[in-house]
Amino acid sequence: MKRTLALVLMSIGGLGAAVTGISFAVAAGTSLQAIALANSESEEGSLLGPAGVVSPEPGLSDDEAITVENWVAPTEADIPADATEDWRTQYLIGLKQGEVARECMADKGFEYIYGAGLIDVDVNSAWRDLPEKEKAAWGIAMGGNPGVGADWHWEDAGCTGVALKATNQENAN
Amino acid sequence: MSALVYRWAAWYSRDLPETVTKERRDELASDIHEHTAWARSEGMPDGRLSRDIASRTVRGIFSDLGWRRMQLRRNDALDPAAGRRRRVNSAALFLVAAVALLIVGWGVAVLSRVGQRVLEGAISPWSDTANGVIAFTVLATLGLALLVRRRTRFIGALWLIVPAIALLHLGTYALISTSVTIMMLTFNLPSWDLLLLALDVSVALLLVGAALWWWPTRSQAPHPAPVVTDAFAPNGVHA
Question: DSSP letter at B215?
Fold first, then answer.
């Protein structure tokens, strides 16, 4: 009886873990592919960058640094007609975060650079050509020095934290 | 050196009927005795004798394992239920050890990522989450160590439940703020929470089942097993 119960539990658990692991891998792969596809197809750039790094504004190419001077405030007219409500909401939140982060960085004497925080993506010549020391200083100004997980506090997260707080997304993690 | 030979023999004759293992031990003892007597009569130094015995043991490893395989096959044919139990036992050990290794590996991978970001000055060191990952990775390693000995295997399986579940959650939590990929997945994968929950439940069921399987019975006396004598095992001994 004990051995039979153990065998049943191990079978269900083993099978469940295998199926969940495979489902997770497939779902993650599909999701990441969809994100990559959305990024490559969107003329407006990615909406799904890390917190504080938002889509470029209309009229600017991916390779053009967005600054306080050349930034053009987006309007709802920039949102595709077939965009879902979630997409529209995220877009507007992203743009608002960009606006706040840009102002915050300008207050600290830095230029806001689109896509600077993306890892392993050489998105922007303005970022690529920045000296390493300036990159580090820029990174601290933008991302601060927050903790991990539960210790993450928007107050410690530089302009990213400020942008998240301004859009009520500071607890989104 | 003889002690090492006997330990090796005890390992490769595990799960076999006591009569078979005793017979193997006796043959080994006789073989070592004869070898030692011959070496003494030849005036061979003890160091060289030890090296000779060690060399014979190493050269006989594959034969010893072949002997074990043959004995197990014969015993399985005579007692199919015992054979099934042994196979389930091996499968359970393989599965649980694989889960434990994956969990420890996951903890180490998360810590290396967090450490990398700390060195870059991007995040603060010694956060509660990172400390939690360290603590549960150590606990998972201890659980893995408990699986090694048969007597403590059921404790190891139960022990691993908490660190396994905790590391799944704490690890992904730590990576949200240190990995763009994980952050994107947590925000964009609608089934993220459901999959994590399913993984929690599956791993817990597997470990509870394994603990139950390995739970010591009240009587530790070995169950009667068929005797395989020389009549069934013509192969010689490879000491």
Answer: P
Q: Concatenated DSSP letters for B22-46?
A: HHHHHHHHHHHHHHHHHHHHTT--H
pTM for the model: 0.60
Instruction: Verify whether the Cβ–Cβ distance A23 to B183 is below 8 Å.
Output: no
**How near does any CA of chain A get to the CA of B180, in Å?**
6
Q: Residue B26's Cα: distance from chain center in Å? A: 28
Around Cβ B124, how many Cβ atoms within 10 Å?
18
Q: Which of A12, A27, A172 sits opposite B205 (nearest CB)?
A: A12
Q: Do B128 and A7 touch (CB under 8 A)?
A: no
Give per-residue pLDDT as tens, A32-67.
777 666 555 543 443 333 333 334 444 444 445 444
- Using an 8 Å Cβ cutoff, are A70 and A60 in contact? yes
Residues A107, A64 contacting (CB under 8 angstroms): no
Q: Which DSSP helix (H) or strand (E) runs through A90?
A: helix A85-107
Q: Which residue has the tokens 């990159």?
A: A135
Pick among B205, B217, B223 to test the A interface (most A CBs inside 10 A): B205
Tokens of B93: 């050990």
Q: Are A156 and B122 in contact (CB under 8 A)?
A: no
> ipTM of this model?
0.70
Instruction: Select from A6, A27, A149 the Cβ nearest to the Cβ of B170.
Output: A149
Q: How many CA atoms lie within 13 A of A3 on its CB side?
A: 9
Q: To which residue do tokens 């180490």 refer?
A: B108
